[in-house]
Structure to design on (127 residues):
């Protein structure tokens, strides 16, 4: 083997091992995170009054990830995942409240939306 090939073979082999390890991690993460597609898809379209019933299935999947995932069960990754769920809940609650309705004087619908939003967030905090 030429000196030229020997010089580049070790870094190439190291890079190949790194790519293989990353692929194994990505496949394992995908296996677990795919289970969140359906419940989080429903959450992304939910009204605030529907959110409390959607939380247990989402948290059950998060618990499975925490317990069984080989790579995604770190505190940082799980905190990020829960932060994304929190942000989606906030987003759904914000979408249900219409500032223009409030300014137009339709306070009863806005109060109902606010009450449902508060209940949804309280349900999330209780989980």
């Amino acid at each position: 083997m030429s000196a030229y090939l020997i010089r580049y073979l070790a870094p190439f082999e190291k890079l190949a091992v790194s790519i293989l390890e990353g692929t194994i991690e990505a496949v394992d993460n995908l296996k677990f995170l795919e289970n969140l597609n359906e419940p989080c898809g429903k959450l992304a379209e939910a009204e605030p009054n529907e959110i409390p019933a959607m939380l247990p299935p989402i948290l059950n999947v998060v618990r499975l990830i925490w317990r069984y995932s080989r790579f995604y069960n770190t505190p940082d990754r799980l905190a990020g995942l829960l932060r994304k769920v929190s942000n989606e809940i906030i987003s759904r609650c914000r979408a249900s409240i219409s500032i223009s309705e409030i300014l137009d004087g339709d306070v009863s619908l806005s109060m109902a939306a606010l009450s449902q939003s508060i209940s949804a967030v309280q349900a999330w905090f209780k989980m």
